[in-house]
Amino acid sequence: QVQLVESGGGLVQPGGSLSLSCTASGFSFSGYPMRWYRQAPRKERELVALISGTGGYKNYADSVKGRFTISRDNAKNTVYLQMNSLKPEDTAVYYCNTYNSVLSVNYWGQGTQVAVSS
Q1: Whole-number CA gyration radius for the chain
Q2: Cβ atoms of residues 70 and 50 within 8 Å
Q3: What count of other Cβ atoms lies within 10 Å of the Cβ of residue 4?
């Protein structure tokens, strides 16, 4: 079955950096776009970044453009989110996601907590 396992969250000071990883299994990873979402307390889950199956197309939420970078290594079935210049408002649980359009099913990881605080 499809599994998405995130890692790399933690506590960082404002202006710092963190790198998140999401390792996938159970599907043809290179054939699927991958997404990072986040959900802050008392807020809706929001799309942070998207990368195509080949990695040739990337898109970002306006709030993270220029600070976050999404990438993938299809040989390792892993998608990454490099987060620089972190702000307190980046504090959230970050989720890895993929969507199977044939089955109309969203798949989610368990989430990893990112906290930005001095």
Answers
A1: 14
A2: yes
A3: 22
